[in-house]
Write a structure and sequence with these properties.
By secondary structure, this protein is an alpha+beta fold. The chain has helices spanning 2-32, 34-40, 86-93, 97-110, 124-133, 156-159, 167-172, 186-190, 192-196, 237-246, 283-292, 301-304, 314-323, 355-361, 364-375, 381-394, 416-423, 447-459, 494-506, 562-579, 587-595, and strands spanning 44-50, 57-58, 64-76, 116-122, 140-150, 162-164, 181-183, 200-206, 212-215, 231-233, 252-258, 263-270, 462-464, 469-472, 484-486, 522-528, 536-543, 550-556. It has two domains: 71-149, Penicillin-binding protein 2a (Domain 2); 237-595, 3-Layer(aba) Sandwich (Beta-lactamase). Residues 38-42 have low confidence and may be disordered.
Length: 605
């Protein structure tokens, strides 16, 4: 009997302790902890993504190129939507009822319970009107984001644009969700991680009627968005705008580089487009129009066009010939007799020519004999060609020379394997591939590569990888841009070549259109054969001769001769960059270049 009473007491005590624990826990949860108190009042937690503003982009002198403007997305949670005035709704948002129906069906298919974007990128002006009426539409809410805005219409290809993420982007980087935006091209793409910032989260409480009740836990669990880093580009906005003005109504490209650093001062692909066209709700419509344009304004010629360099390539072949001792500064070849075959000169000039004269006069006979001597300088033509190939490759031809330009092409630099495939091993020689002597044939270079070639000539044998970023806020640029890349040519061989380039500008007909007062510019013209219309006008140059500040390459499609458009346009850009103006006596040349319309076949060239 006593044992039974004792056992009963123990059991009651155990249950009493357990009950006390439950009572204390319930008191803590329901009274002391505000979290559960909030849930107890039928409030619902809603997380709202806070989109950071993208970093700003400036030119090298601190001039603003790209900034942000506020826009809004309208989100829908299908299960919360009640009957509403669709006509008023569509009028407020400037959409059709059909578009609304499609949007709601798409959102419902995605999830009846989760919010998804119904209307993207609503302007601040339209949002202000919508906000006053939004209480009439249950199940709809807005979120803010930023869109890109541009200070000018310049540098569209260089800056790039932002677009909605694809499924591939989302799979590649978990940072992105459906409806997010990402850099698609240019600086926006290459420096996406620096520019995009970091998304934040704001936690709100809404009641069962979807009405905002305030911040969850007074914002203690909110994560603020981190604004993207500002970027200073290497571009000179004034030079960029001037280059685009010169290239209006023309097709082609110009790239200008600071030789001492590899910084890109201007990079133009013409025809270009207004970058503002690819922003906001009109982006899709405008993109389709640009894509359908027969002039291909979206095609970035400065990085993706593989042009034959023509005679602008001749200084490189002369340098290779000197380095290989296939020729020397006293070597001379005549433009008549056997030396002139099979590549003859296209105009009369002094003959025979030496190195300086050959570059000045763009002597085909001299370059053919130089190229043949290079190829025949080894036991077999293939060995000689491979030696030539390696020299050319050291100038950056046939490779992507910079990580700053993600969509840049390598160009075409033929190999022994290519010619073996075409002609058969042992069945080709210098004569077979003779077009390479004058920058034609299978060669294909991008304007960026050729501007870098101009920088190599300016530096007498080295270059820094071309790049378009000068500084990143609270970050560093790639150290690879500070590495000096030496070509396989001794410095001493550059001087006679540079003298020939100087005489090209100052001792030929170029003196009337391309000589810059008080500045010694060294350059080489090129006329590239075109089987589909007028020949192309090409020019590579740098200035001043000593301590060069700018190297430039200009390619004007259907410009006929190098001296007609490319050389004068390059000289104007160089003068503008070095002196901030154009001399009075050269104003007529400037006007002629700006007014020239090479897109209209009826107008005289």
């Amino acid at each position: 009997m006593k044992v039974s009473s004792k056992r009963r007491f123990v059991v009651l005590a155990v249950f009493g302790v357990i009950g006390l624990i439950f009572i204390i826990s319930l008191f803590r949860l329901q009274v002391l902890d505000p979290t559960y108190k909030q849930y107890a009042t039928n409030n619902v937690l809603r997380e709202v993504t806070q989109y950071p503003a993208r970093g700003l982009v400036f030119d090298r002198n601190g001039k603003l190129l790209v900034y942000n403007k506020t826009a809004y997305d309208l989100l829908i949670t299908p299960r919360e939507v009640t009957k509403f005035d669709t006509t008023l709704f569509c009028n407020l948002l400037d959409i059709s009822i059909e578009d609304l129906d499609v949007g709601i069906k798409k959102a419902t298919k995605y999830s009846p319970y989760k919010p998804s974007i119904l209307i993207k990128q609503i302007s601040p002006e339209r949002f202000a009107v919508l906000k006053e009426q939004l209480y009439k539409f249950q199940g709809f809410r807005t979120q803010s984001r930023t869109l890109r805005e541009y200070s000018t219409t310049a540098a569209a290809h260089a800056l790039g644009y932002v677009g909605e993420v694809s499924n591939r982007d989302i799979k590649k980087d978990k940072y992105y969700k459906s409806g997010d935006y990402i850099g698609v091209s240019g600086i926006e793409k290459t420096y996406e991680k620096q520019l995009r910032g970091v998304k934040g989260v704001k936690k709100n409480l809404v009641d069962v009627h979807n009405r905002l009740q305030g911040s969850y836990r007074d914002g203690k669990e909110d994560i603020p968005a981190q604004i993207g880093k500002n970027i200073t580009s290497t571009l000179d906005l004034d030079l960029q705008l001037y280059a685009e003005q010169l290239f209006q109504n023309k097709k082609g490209s110009v790239v200008a580089i600071e030789p001492a650093t590899g910084e890109v001062l201007a990079i133009v692909s013409a025809p270009t487009y207004d970058p503002g066209l690819l922003v906001g709700r009109v982006r899709g419509k405008n993109y389709s129009k640009l894509l359908a344009d027969t002039l291909k304004p979206l095609f970035n010629r400065s990085l993706q066009a593989k042009y034959p360099p023509g005679s602008t390539f001749k200084p490189m072949n002369v340098l290779i010939g000197l380095q290989e001792h296939a020729i020397n500064t006293n070597s001379r070849f005549t433009c008549s007799g056997k030396d002139s075959r099979p590549i003859r000169c296209t105009h009369n000039h002094v003959t025979p020519t030496n190195v300086v004269q050959a570059i000045r006069e763009s002597c085909n006979a001299f370059l053919w004999n130089t190229f043949r001597a290079i190829i025949n300088n080894s036991k077999t033509s293939a060995e000689g060609f491979n030696a030539w190939h390696d020299y050319v490759a050291s100038f950056g031809v046939g490779q992507n020379i910079s990580s700053d330009f993600s969509n840049g092409l390598k160009g075409d630099l033929p190999t022994e394997a290519d010619y073996n495939k075409i002609y058969g091993k042992g069945h080709w020689n210098a004569l077979t591939v003779r077009s390479l002597a004058i920058g034609q044939g299978e060669l294909g270079v991008t304007p960026l590569q050729m501007a870098n070639y101009g920088a190599i000539l300016a530096n007498r044998g080295y270059y820094f990888k071309p790049h378009i970023i000068k500084e990143i806020e609270n970050d560093t640029i790639s150290q690879s841009f500070k590495i000096k890349h030496e070509v396989q040519i001794d410095k001493k061989y550059f001087e006679p070549v540079i003298e020939g380039m100087s005489q090209t500008v100052h001792n030929t007909n170029l003196v009337y259109t391309s000589k810059i007062p008080k500045i010694e510019m060294c350059g080489k013209t090129g006329t590239v054969e075109n089987n589909h219309g007028s020949d192309h006008s090409v020019f590579v140059a740098f200035a001043p001769r000593e301590n060069p500040e700018i190297a430039i390459f200009v390619y004007v499609e259907n410009g006929v001769w190098g001296s007609r458009y490319a050389a004068p346009m390059a000289s104007l850009m160089v003068e503008r960059y070095l002196t901030d103006s154009i001399s009075t006596r050269r104003k007529y040349i400037e006007k002629r270049m700006i007014d020239a319309n090479l897109l209209n076949p009826i107008q005289p060239k």
